[in-house]
Amino acid sequence: MESFRFNHNDNVAYALLFSPVNDPGKIKQRIIDAAKADDQDRDAVNFSFIEASLITSRLHLETAIHQAIIVESQGSLRTKTIHSEILFALNPTNNITEAIRRYGVSETSKSLIVVQITDSSASASDVETKMKAVVDGVVVSFRELATVTDWDRVKKYLKLDKEAKEKGDLARTQAFIDSVAISSVAMKSVMQ
């Protein structure tokens, strides 16, 4: 499990990478159902479910989490929860529906990053247990992230087809795309 510590309101974010994921459609339906249910059902899925194939690096994810925490601390969430705000931060456009559709769990998700932002009193092992109870999949190290990233889709969403072709070898191209993805997330709140 990865953990990210931030100075805003004593926040900690925990993240697990699941790859592969079995029956992602069931997870999506559970999230939809929880929105209409009681607090206990909502709490059981109180995570950000992120399409792992669109995350280019640990820093890309960390930047989106940090942006969501900052926006929440300023009282200016554009989505309903801090967890959906992460998806919004990842999307290069300002369309919330598009952000959730692209970066959230879908019926075709093969890999997911599950994130929970909480205060530092939460136990990492308790959070991990809750995540594993929701996602039927294999937990893998974040070192595996590069193997699940769909660089062509990321490039398409960032509109980098021409620029990425000019970078040369694969490693340089991926580093360029990662840099643009991170910058896109970091600058989003400034650009609005």
TrEMBL record:
InterPro entries with a match to the protein in the record: CGI121/TPRKB, CGI121/TPRKB_sf
Keywords from the UniProt entry: Nucleus, tRNA processing
Entry's Gene Ontology cellular component terms: cytosol; EKC/KEOPS complex; nucleus
Alphabetical list of Gene3D superfamilies matching this protein: CGI121/TPRKB
Domain of life according to the entry: Eukaryota
Keyword Magnesium: no
Subcellular localization, as worded in the UniProt entry: Nucleus
Family annotation (Pfam families): CGI-121 (PF08617)
Gene Ontology biological-process annotations: tRNA threonylcarbamoyladenosine modification
Protein's job: Component of the EKC/KEOPS complex that is required for the formation of a threonylcarbamoyl group on adenosine at position 37 (t(6)A37) in tRNAs that read codons beginning with adenine. The complex is probably involved in the transfer of the threonylcarbamoyl moiety of threonylcarbamoyl-AMP (TC-AMP) to the N6 group of A37. CGI121 acts as an allosteric effector that regulates the t(6)A activity of the complex. The EKC/KEOPS complex also promotes both telomere uncapping and telomere elongation. The complex is required for efficient recruitment of transcriptional coactivators.
Family to which this protein belongs: Belongs to the CGI121/TPRKB family.
Name of the protein described by the UniProt record: EKC/KEOPS complex subunit CGI121
Organism for this UniProt entry: Gymnopus androsaceus JB14
